[in-house]
Amino acid sequence: MHLKSLTMKGFKSFASATTLRFEPGITCVVGPNGSGKSNVLDALRWVMGTQGAKDLRGGKMEDVIFAGTSGRSPLGRAEVTLTIDNADGALPIEYTEVSITRRMFRDGASEYEINGSSCRLLDIQELLSDSGIGREMHVIVGQGQLSEILQAKPEDRRSFIEEAAGVLKHRKRKEKALRKLNAMQGNLDRLNDLTTELQRQLKPLGKQAEIARRAQVVQAELRDARLRLYADDLVTQRTQIEKEEADEKAARARRAEVEQTLEAATSEQTELEAVLAEDAPKLTAAQDTWYKLSSLAERLRGTVRLAVERRRHLSAEVDTGGTGRDPEELLAEAEEAAAREEELGEGVAQARALLSETVERREQLEQRVQAAERAHLAAVRAIADRREGIAKLSGQVDALRSKSTATADEVERLTSGIEEAVARAEAASEELEQARAEGGVEDSDDATLRERHDRAVEANTAAKARVEELVKAERTAEREIASEKARLDALSMSLSRKDGAGSLLGAADDVPGLLGSVAALLTVEPGHEVALAAALGPVADA
Length: 542
Prior knowledge:
By secondary structure, the protein is α+β, with helices and mostly antiparallel strands. Helices cover about 70% and strands about 5% of the residues.
């Protein structure tokens, strides 16, 4: 094995690429001072892995890069390639020719290559370790190194001899193995310390694990209990909702019945008023007929009295036997009077029949009028009652609204209280878990934390119960408000005027002097509604 060539580019004084070919038989490099003999030796040392700047006769490693001259600018990198003939297989690599390249940049980065492939410095040192060449390079003797060998002490000379004999690499491998063994022993000591520490912590950790398992069981039971409570609350709420829906359906049915009854009463009242208005001309005509028939009956009675008087007078004249009128004339006049009497009697009978029929019809009409008046009075009283009920319902609605608002405020306050209680309970649980984790003690040492946790849980339960109670009260109040509002709307609809008075009241702004309905302008003391309705009668709607 021998060196075949050395190529330098940008290394110290070799700015341009320079290649030195070492043919067989070349054993040294000679030349005058300053010709660059030492730079060739430094290049060999540098490419074979020398890391000390002093070994390369420089202050720092960047000094190996060409620094420039007056006629040429400095370069940014230094590169050296060493080619070794490996035909005899001295190097443990499957190549007959081995090229080792080292490249360095001004930023301090270095690159190593073997036959053009990137590698590490350690790979190059391992490759050259069995060849007798390397960083110390006893086979290449530079200027001043010969005197150093001749004047060396026996122990220093021994290192040169060991290096030449190939013992140095084995000693370095031994030192490296010893360093690894020392590092391994340190790791084993550290591992033993960790094992001892872990064994010392096993017992507290076992207790903590047992506590954690028990806590998991308690949390699972608590979660199951909460789920059961939620399920029971859900069933209760569903039952309550079904009951409320049934009550709502019953109330709607009752409301529909009342509305139907009200509509029937209103339609009956309207029919009675229409019949009364229709029969009023007939009643007037019947009264006129009755007056005429009474006058006719009085005239008939006068005629009858006159006929009786005349008959009696005629009879008296016949009994006296004195002179007078012709008997035949008297008979004819008597027959005429009898025929007239008979005609008048028939007329009187007809008039009496018509009078009886008229009187009967009048009585019927009077009864219907009285019934209509009574229905009207009842309607007036119902209107007064409804207005009073509307006033009461309005008050109840306002009260229920204020109660609902207060309930909502209370629910919001209690909800925030529940959230604070839950936060306190979670904080207490976290403190309990932290204390258990840090202390590794039994449950008996956590009495204070358990007491705080129990108080927080009780406060949370009480707040939830109060919230549920207030929510139920709020729902009840909302249902009452809806019911009362529905009644208020129904009564308001029933009070809407659909007759001419309603149209007149609707145009009250255009009618001077019109203040409104009589009933709307009156304030009735409680207990006197019926009496006032009876006293006003139909005037209440005027």
